[in-house]
Amino acid sequence: MKAYLHIAYRETTGIVYERAGVPLKFDKKIYHQRSKVKTVFSVIKRKYESFVLSKSFEIQKKELLIRLIAYNIGRKLILSLVIIGIHQSRKNITL
What we know:
By secondary structure, the chain is mainly α. The chain has a two-stranded antiparallel sheet. Helix content is 62%, strand content 4%. It has two domains: 1-49, no CATH class; 51-95. Strand 1 (18-19) and strand 2 (22-23) form a beta hairpin. It is flat and about 60 Å long. It contains two helices and two strands. The model has no long low-confidence stretch (mean pLDDT 79).
């Protein structure tokens, strides 16, 4: 699969990590993407509970999908309200 770890190594260890004789390079951009994904999972777990109520695997997948859709709709609504609020405040300033 050619997958590589994107977890920062401790600088205090002094160990150079290698894979197949090639030193691994740490990419901060990829690591930041990982941190954003972990943050979204954390928000979803806090907002919609961290457990599923369904027993069968298929229904569990559907339940999680519904939670993800609800999270995305909520984010879009909040963003829309913020944009409308900014637009309205600019109209009031120019009048």
